[in-house]
Design brief:
Number of helices: 9
Order of helices and strands: EHHHHEHEEHEHEHEH
Largest sheet: 7 strands, mixed
Structural class: alpha/beta
Helix content: 40-55%
CATH architecture: 3-Layer(aba) Sandwich
Strand content: 15-25%
CATH superfamily: HAD superfamily/HAD-like
Shape: globular
CATH class: Alpha Beta
CATH topology: Rossmann fold
Low-confidence stretches: none
Number of domains: 1
Radius of gyration: 16 Å
Mean pLDDT: 93
Amino acid sequence: MDVMCLDLEGVLLPEIWKGVAHKTGIKELELTTRNIPDYNELMSNRLRIMNQNQLDLSVLQEVVSQLEPLAGAKDFLDWLRTEFQVIILSDTFYEFAKPLIAQLGWPTLFCHHLEVGNDNKISGYRLRMEDHKRMAVQSLQKLNFNVKAAGDSYNDISMLKAANEGYLFNAPSSIIKEFPKFPTFNNYNELKYYLKN
């Protein structure tokens, strides 16, 4: 059986940090991996802004508690799991992702950890490993799995390149133009039809 690796935010869920930006009114927090290719730069900026504004983990958790999966995401994921082993490879964090993963029916999630003090302030983050999406795909291939992958942002590109088949899903036009070799899909029905045929 093939394995399908999916990004989380932008593919199955709304962008969490955009929700944080909306709640706090801090426009800089709208930036995502669709805008900034270097994930460490992006996260360092996010944590700096949060500390400057005395925002802690509870802000992220509150935003997440009000989010829902993208329309059709749960049904698509349910179908996908009848045809593939499915793993979510995300650069989100376990400390606030749980409610959203519950809404998706508890798919397997590989992501990272935040470093949080007793005062609930975020002092840093721990990546599972550098370029963990690509590494996960390559490890699955070493187990003789055929791996397909779908994502929407710069931090997905190495995963898509490593996969036996990589797809851009709901990606911005700038990324589609920069990486034209990947088939592009704009909704779940399009990708489902492609995978079935």
